[in-house]
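Batch 3, record 17
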Amino acid sequence: MDAQTRIQEENVELHREALLRTPVEHFDIAAVDTRPILAMYEQMRFTAAELSRAYRILSAGLADEDCCLFLSLAGSTSAAGCMDIYRDLVDAHLVDAIVATGASIIDMDLFEALGFRHFHRQDDLNDDQLREHEIDRIYDTYIDERDLRVCDETIQKIANGLEPGAYSSRQFIREIGRWLDNEGSEYCKKDSLIAAAYRNNVPIFCPAFSDSSAGFGLVAHQTEHPDAHVTIDSVRDFRELTTVKTSFKESALFMVGGGTPKNFIQDTVVCADLLGHPSRMHKYTVQITVADPRDGACSSSTLSEACSWGKVDRALEQMVFSEASLSVPLLASALFHQHAKDKRKPRNAAGTLSTAQNTP
Amino acid sequence: MDAQTRIQEENVELHREALLRTPVEHFDIAAVDTRPILAMYEQMRFTAAELSRAYRILSAGLADEDCCLFLSLAGSTSAAGCMDIYRDLVDAHLVDAIVATGASIIDMDLFEALGFRHFHRQDDLNDDQLREHEIDRIYDTYIDERDLRVCDETIQKIANGLEPGAYSSRQFIREIGRWLDNEGSEYCKKDSLIAAAYRNNVPIFCPAFSDSSAGFGLVAHQTEHPDAHVTIDSVRDFRELTTVKTSFKESALFMVGGGTPKNFIQDTVVCADLLGHPSRMHKYTVQITVADPRDGACSSSTLSEACSWGKVDRALEQMVFSEASLSVPLLASALFHQHAKDKRKPRNAAGTLSTAQNTP
Amino acid sequence: MDAQTRIQEENVELHREALLRTPVEHFDIAAVDTRPILAMYEQMRFTAAELSRAYRILSAGLADEDCCLFLSLAGSTSAAGCMDIYRDLVDAHLVDAIVATGASIIDMDLFEALGFRHFHRQDDLNDDQLREHEIDRIYDTYIDERDLRVCDETIQKIANGLEPGAYSSRQFIREIGRWLDNEGSEYCKKDSLIAAAYRNNVPIFCPAFSDSSAGFGLVAHQTEHPDAHVTIDSVRDFRELTTVKTSFKESALFMVGGGTPKNFIQDTVVCADLLGHPSRMHKYTVQITVADPRDGACSSSTLSEACSWGKVDRALEQMVFSEASLSVPLLASALFHQHAKDKRKPRNAAGTLSTAQNTP
Amino acid sequence: MDAQTRIQEENVELHREALLRTPVEHFDIAAVDTRPILAMYEQMRFTAAELSRAYRILSAGLADEDCCLFLSLAGSTSAAGCMDIYRDLVDAHLVDAIVATGASIIDMDLFEALGFRHFHRQDDLNDDQLREHEIDRIYDTYIDERDLRVCDETIQKIANGLEPGAYSSRQFIREIGRWLDNEGSEYCKKDSLIAAAYRNNVPIFCPAFSDSSAGFGLVAHQTEHPDAHVTIDSVRDFRELTTVKTSFKESALFMVGGGTPKNFIQDTVVCADLLGHPSRMHKYTVQITVADPRDGACSSSTLSEACSWGKVDRALEQMVFSEASLSVPLLASALFHQHAKDKRKPRNAAGTLSTAQNTP
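Prediction for the assembled complex:
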């Protein structure tokens, strides 16, 4: 390396530090009580009314003793500052099971558990320049690409430690939780959704698990162990998730974004029917999204449309037309203050899965 | 009328009562202090960060002693429950001048000043059936069409009482304010934005004034008085608004929605230049809208784009991607609690218009 | 001026030339026949089906001998390449009256009539830099700000030549048409919508006329002639537009975008009723927009909602979810090829306005 | 069953027939040549210009002899009338590999291959009533729920015929293709994308395969064979897709919608790097979507943003802001007429996967 190259590289390093300066801090739902705001929204119309009704519906779901509440996560709200909200809801026994994108669980939650951070976008560097600085961008957040590689390697390390065989994503994520709680505790810098879910017997399902940092780690693992290795069987995820659904009389869906998680949790009603264990439609359903229904896609499709498929009960469903970073804190804070101190009984959704299903 | 027809009509009347049952109540910004929420949003990203930055920008504008704050209103947020917010901001001296659609000022604000209400949509009556019930719909709100006609007639009555001649909308709305404060006080059931603006010397401009109930009333007035009547000269509005703009060193724009008001207030910078009174670009600018910039229209155009036209300073501008009923209460409450008790000095923007301009 | 400043200014001039290099060319609806495409869209669903149904509806409106077709224009589609489409529809007798934003008619159509052009955005100059180069941006188009000033001055010159008094925007725009056809013909470089409308007795209404370059020119005119000058009476516009509406048994609306034009033309039904000349709801109505109805604003409101107000017949209405530059050419080409050679009889909508109304 | 119940059921059956009356017919890209339209769009701006540039980029990708073109499908465009477009592109050797949602491939393409159809929405039955009629709705299309069950069963039958073990979705879909071409040919009523892909060695990957009718069929298969059964290993999909990517010097992405397929195909660049086979960024990339980037999610994220991650080259990328049913036919027809007769050499992407990878 000649002098000039070294100077350039040093400049990149200095610039990287400047670009990765202001970390995202997550909203703390315990710190404010938004119920008075939602009470006024209730008398209004448009989106304000939608959000207050979403609160009433999920609140009813939480108060229903026969009901299991599923949180569905798509999009990058965890990167943008909602990450601790989901963890705190789990710890307060207000979420019983989770269906999520791999990115939310691995690239964001495990990533911050390992001590890495998301950062505020700093200025108008273009995306070519960011690439040269090894900085990845999600809208107005920055991620250090080098940190992400550690996340991939952690997945690989955990996979290497497991018995070869077919795992559901739920089983694999539970192993991550176990690792965070045990040998990984020395690497773990922050309490996380994965860890809280592990502690609280809240299963986490990622129907497209390999479409994330988990995929990178698992590909590396399989390549390293070509003959006997861990595989992720998403069919098993579907069976398990349906078992959770059918283990409770009623269900509530708190959907942040759409995507594969939205479809997967809704489809459990149909799957239950097919397996000869007919189950009721999801009774309390909320989706927060700005996706436009006029594109005819699943993410944007109305919850009413899902009723035609026999998946969602129309009586208590609400779409909320809002980018989630704005509305999820308001909604979750109100649910937390209304229900957390009631000591809602944990549903132990993971316990509905038999031992045979819990190990590969 | 035969018996059957009478019964049908009675049924319609009964049904109308049932449909117009739950009035919209407006958000009360004094009742909650949202600053702790915005402080947490500031550490987040995505829309939450946009809203907190919008707050910082407008707060800086309010703290700037040389600055006049313009509120721009388009869309139906007043019908949906934000109406009192705008009035309360005016009464707290946090808004110095207003540019709005005719609908916001006449069909909504004057309408409720006269004691009428907007109502919650009740059920799935289709729009044909609503028409048969003389109920008008704005998204999920209902309006009694019969009440709207009283609003038209009030405009006609006020116009009939004025000297014939060319008025700016600002002048005409000031006359409405005067009427509400005097002979109209017996009809007036509720304090309103128009009345607060009249009391506080806050001028209100409607660049497309006849595109509203005001248009209906003024058409009736002109038809009734074909030879000598009130006309609305929108060119005069533009001159007057530019005079207000140039009377202050700096300006802030708090834009709710886009439309004609957004363009009109921005254009004052160019107009001032043309009149030989060069004025600085709008310094503190915020727009709340979900309009998609990819349609290339003015309502959705970025504030950065407005900088290319020399209208808006890029340093302190912020678009907020949110339907306004959700975010305006949060933003306005924070501004109110931060600045109302400081007793910000009224800017008396109406006073910048000479007597000659104030009367036709 | 020192040497360095002169060099900088020369650089700006050179750069301006490079930036204003590739002019927008307008779609030529005669050059392709899109009917085979729309016929296939008709068998599909989603937006393709919406567009084909919009074609069927407007086609039925054109075939209806008692029907007057109103074209409503908002947004910047004329800048983006649809300008000649509107002119060609007028020349083919497929549009009978126009309601538009001032920008569409003055800043875009008159602007190009005078020989100026819109240009393709060239590269990533930011908006501050564009301002320094006196280049205005509309999304991905550029406009030379110096050319726009000529447009303002032309308006001023035309206003200076008129008798003082209150004009509707329709009357004033007719005077522009007359000017283009006579003394202005030496400046006129391109055939335009204004000129075609003048030739074909197609009235053009701009309910917010001063919210455009027209406003700049008229403010300059009024300032120059403080005592006796032209004023624009938008109430008169409303009366005249209602007269046109009530002069025909049926009406069709071809709305590109929303905004003030959408509301203004729809309101004529209510205005007619108020004036004691009850008129039927608009029978054939189409709106092309990507505006999201969930914001509760007029631009995005469904045509079905307009039925609750008694303005639009639900039987033949169609919203088309598309940015207009993509779909207007397809739709207009099909209408042109289906109806232009039939020699549809001109409706002479301007002729419905009495002489007394045609002159101030 | 009493008489009344029987009459009700007969009524439902009759109504079902009436509701499922008008099938969706798919756009035929050979029937029209849209190149003259796109040539005019190229001179325009806004979305028209985006679409024409998308055509230029993909056309360049097709002309590049070192380039493999990936088609990525999310959303329901196949149900809405684009289904045959994708098949015809494969048969014309204009698509080399496919990444899709399970719904596009199984619920839509296999579904119609079996002779079932999508239908036009007929009237305003609400979604509760549709459910009672066993009719599923996707926006303005209808599907007979009974037909979908046959689709599930077909998957189950095919799985039952395979050796137990871990399959990639690509392998399983290839088995469906083989079945359609052999024993399934008696059931097969229509040529399909799956069959065309099988014939042309075009691999199809579904990273969330069980999130579809495939999931229902495979759950039934696994439940029926609890001890030895087919599993779907999505990690293997990722390895295989990365192998395809690294087997070609350059790659082009034609993305319809976003979702898991968008992320999965983009991630192959990173995966290749991780596996020690560094690969170039995707060189020619197009995405058609109306998703709003302001929600910070992957589906809506700009292709420029993907460059910061090192996945997409910024030089030749284009987002097209359009619902796909409108623009995919225009784009695909132009590509077809420009390149089909050139007899582009098939890339045989499936052949890049070794025999060991092609069988479980």
